[in-house]
Amino acid sequence: MKDSDIAVSQIALMKQKLHSARTALEEFNKDRNDKLKTLIQFIGQLSLACKGQNLELDNKLAKLRHNLHDFDQIDEALPELVDIERLLKGQYNQTMAKLEESRTGLSKVIRQIQRVNSAPDKVKKEVNYFKQELSKPFHTVWEYIPKVEKLIGFYEDILQLQFNNPDDIDILPQHIQLARELAVKISEIEFRKDQRDQVLVMKEVLLGDITLSTLLESYQTIISLLLDNIAREKSASQDFLYALNDALTVVRDVVNNSHNSNERSAQLKQQLNNEINLRVDNAGGLITDIEDIADLKTQLTVQLSSLRDALSRKEALEQREQAILRNSINAMRKELNSITQEANSFKEKLFEHQKLNLLDPLTQLANRTALEDRMDQEYRNHIRFKTPLWIAVTDIDHFKMVNDNFGHSTGDKTLQVIAMALKNSLRESEFVARYGGEEFVLLLPDITEENISILLNRVREKIKNIPFKFKNQKITVTLSIGAAQVMENETIEEAFERADAALYKAKNNGRDRVVIDI
Ligand SMILES: Nc1nc2c(ncn2[C@@H]2O[C@H](COP(=O)(O)OP(=O)(O)OP(=O)(O)O)[C@@H](O)[C@H]2O)c(=O)[nH]1
After folding, report:
1. Is residue 438 in contact with ligand 1, taking CB distance under 6 Å?
2. Do residues 61 and 51 touch, judged by C-beta distance below 8 A?
3. Which of 96, 305, 366, 455 could form a disulfide with 433 if both were Cys (CB 3.0 to 4.6 A apart)?
4. Coiled-coil annotation: which residues (predicted)?
5. If you average pLDDT over every residue of the chain, what do you get?
């Protein structure tokens, strides 16, 4: 074969190879584009799945989807990818941190559920198992949601049980606090004798292990007892008013009757007086007109007899009048006596109430109302006579410990002893009141600035030296005292505030001391 023929056949072969290579390249390009399109579609779908986690990411992905949609614009999408990659990475870290946070949150909720004593045993067991499960970290949000659902299920079970047995609703610390406060309050109220046993029992219950329903019942009972007392007082005053009204009606009738009979008597008397005058006139006329003595004697005898008759009728009338008057007076006296008795017993009751309203039933010291009255009175004297006036506020130290360690009734007795000791350590002119709880207020007129500290420290020492013995244990009870003198142009309330602030200082400086605000 000639060289030229060889060259031609080689060229033909190369052409053929080139054609095959081009066809292969076209097929490869087509295949690559198909795969790329599939990939782009997939990215589009994936980006939709990420939607809703982060707004910036959503916007970027929307833009990416738009750019990828037109195959020719694919180059424009490339720079966006860097940003999107950064956002996706951040989003991943954030999601993981949030999931960990949520896991801790759920563990807290679990601990709360475990504290619910009334939870059924089945729930308690499941909660324990669930707690172990919860110790493993979550990897996706979808692992988290069923856990939350499970927790809600536990709550549902517990609530369901409590709705079915409302008596078992858990009593919270604030309920117990309310019960204790109610116990203190009812010991400050004076109940009737026949109510006292019931109140004592209630106080014991309130200070013991109480359920919520017992607490509510106690509130209801106390309100009923108080309403009953109010109703009784109302009916006692009503009875008194009715009795007063009846007595006044009787007195009015008596007065009316005696007035009417007086009028009738006055008319009769007038008639009799006229008759007597007429007889006297007639007798006078006879003396001047008749000259014959015998005739005169006869006529005069007739006139005198008529006169005697009229006079005796007048006397009878006057006697009847006096009898009526006496009866009226007696009837009125009787009514007045009975109404005076009623009024006295009502007054006594009022006085008792008034006294009770001013006395603290536990310690028998003056109460807050009485203190306010006395503060007014002492302040007026202080202004009028320019005498010094001190006010001291005192509070027992760590009194809660006495209650907590030895019981509330020991606490009550301690208060009584301290109240008595305070009262006994003051002069007649001085005054002490229970201000509330374990706090007392002293009003001390006529004390000089040099003496106030001596006096109050003496009171403090006196209380400190009381040999209290609880459960065979010797206990020292101390007081903190704050005092202030009423200054010129100052109200007693302002001085009280200063004394209270001084008490606060005494407490803060270590208790068992007197602080005087000068
Ligand atoms: N037994 C009894 N306790 C009372 C009465 N009134 C108040 N308390 C108790 O007095 C205590 C006062 O406690 P806190 O206010 O904490 O004061 P504290 O323990 O005295 O401590 P400090 O005042 O800070 O020294 C509480 O436990 C009250 O329940 C009462 O009439 N009887």
Report:
1. yes
2. yes
3. 366
4. 307-349
5. 85
